[in-house]
TrEMBL record:
Keywords: Cell membrane, Lipoprotein, Membrane, Palmitate, Signal. This is Curli production assembly protein CsgG. One of its GO terms (cellular component) is outer membrane-bounded periplasmic space. It comes from the Bacteria.
Length: 454
């Protein structure tokens, strides 16, 4: 009994060491980290590398705050923490500094600044000699020619959620994701006459992902092995807000150059023409974009041709079925953005090792449904009928399947799919044995070319 107890303790210690090693292998944090400098966003470098103006613009920001009133979502009771950071004015000032186009002046806490200047004056009057008073006068404060107003006007939770998972013989894996969205408006106001010179609008999605894997299996009588691994990653809201603000500042600068609102800071727009052209192209591409990187105009053509490689394995009356590689070619016609009719022909080999091996040509007709036809990435499902031709008379079957498609170009998509074939009779290999119909599983990778009008 004591030996058994020691064995269990030893096994637990080994498992703890393995788990710790795996934690380090997957990059999971296991030790405290030192403080670091703040991370940069994708727009920080773009702001710092903008062409410089002839003269910097003095600019003031009184208040640029969260206007949403949104609280963090909570599954257990109320959560009174705000979803958006409350220091967005500071983030905006940092972005203005990074651009090197502006001289930001303190206006958010102007009362503190004025109070400190008054303390300085009072102290000098009380302790300095009369001869030194005039020479020690405080310089005047800078005043802004332009004020920046606006704020975070929207925080939308769960604009897109989803996941994918599979489990087979106790081994499973799953992934889930969620997208939130933050929206920012920024406007420039002239202090000369109160005119709103320019308003820009940017948005940024905030992604949260979770990946999990598990193993659950009886390995012996009264012996159960169970293991789990998982990781969740949430995009920091502060970085998302910073990126949206930096994008707003860049957009404000470029549109101001294009529309000539910066005055003598930009004498000649020719020096900035490449920057303006790039921005104009981005605006044109953005005209048809909707939430979730979706386009109102259907991206896929009216017709498509496709080719794919397939791995096929039969389940029939013989033992030792073998996986073989085949191929499929086909044509699709879209009767609506979601639905298309597919006509295809494929070639595969039915084989039970050392028993039977037969080649088949299989024409199929399917009705396919694209879940998100206006997205680059979409799941799809399909079903239909087919016939299997070999040296014997044809065998008829039905099939259902599904998969994922991703547009890597405006007319080219890659696909991954799985298909289940079910025979109407039990004689694919020429043998009838039992009541179960012959069936098969197929797994495929392929490419899809779209042609015709969108």
């Amino acid at each position: 009994m004591r030996a058994y107890t020691y064995t269990r303790i030893f096994f637990c210690a080994v498992m703890l060491c393995v788990i710790q090693a795996c934690s380090s292998l997957f990059g999971l944090p296991s030790n405290p980290e030192k403080s670091t400098m703040g991370e940069n966003t994708s727009y920080t470098a773009e702001l710092k590398n903008l062409p410089l103006p002839k003269e910097k613009v003095v600019i003031g920001v009184y208040k640029f705050r969260d206007q949403t009133g949104q609280y963090k979502p909570s599954e257990n009771g109320n959560n009174w923490s705000t979803a958006v950071p409350q220091g967005t004015t500071t983030i905006l000032i940092k972005a203005l500094e990074d651009s090197k186009w502006f001289i930001p002046i303190e206006r958010e806490n102007i009362a503190n600044l004025l109070n400190e200047r008054q303390i300085i004056r009072s102290t000098r009057q009380e302790y300095l000699k009369d001869a030194e008073k005039n020479s020690q006068a405080l310089p005047p404060l800078l005043y802004a020619g332009i004020l920046l107003e606006g704020g975070v006007i929207s925080y939308d939770s769960n604009i897109m959620t989803g996941g994918l998972g599979a489990r087979y013989f106790g081994i499973g894996a799953s992934t889930q994701y969620r997208q939130d969205r933050i929206t920012i408006y920024l406007r420039a106001v002239s202090t000369l006459n109160g005119e709103i010179l320019k308003t820009v609008y940017t948005s940024k999605t905030i992604l949260s992902t979770s990946v999990n894997g598990s193993f659950f299996r009886y390995i012996d009588t009264e012996r159960l092995l169970e293991a789990e691994v998982g990781m969740t990653q949430n995009e920091p809201v502060q970085l998302a807000v910073s990126e949206a603000i930096e994008k707003s500042v860049k957009s404000l600068i470029v549109e101001g150059i294009r529309d000539k609102i910066w005055g003598k800071s930009v004498d000649n727009t020719v020096d900035y023409q490449a920057l303006i052209d790039n921005y104009n192209r981005e605006q044109e591409q953005n005209q048809n974009r909707a939430i979730g990187n979706r386009y109102p105009d259907n991206q896929r053509g009216k017709f498509s041709i496709f080719a794919q490689a397939e791995g096929q394995k039969i389940k029939d009356d013989y033992i030792n079925p073998k996986m073989n590689i085949g191929g499929k070619l086909g044509f699709k016609y879209f009767i609506s953005p979601n639905f298309n009719v597919e006509v295809s022909g494929n070639y595969f080999t039915l084989e039970n090792e050392n028993i039977v091996k037969r080649n088949y040509f299989v024409p199929e007709v399917n009705l396919e449904f694209l879940v998100f036809p206006k997205y680059k990435f979409t799941p799809y499902i399909y079903g239909g009928l087919g016939a299997m031709y070999s040296e014997f008379k044809p065998n008829y079957k039905g099939q259902v399947g599904g998969g994922l498609e991703y547009l890597i170009d405006k007319n080219v998509a890659v696909r991954a799919s799985a298909q289940y074939d079910l025979g109407f009779k039990d004689n694919w290999e020429g043998l009838v044995n039992g009541k179960r119909k012959d069936q098969a599983m197929r797994f495929a990778l392929g490419i899809n070319f779209y042609i015709g009008n969108k």
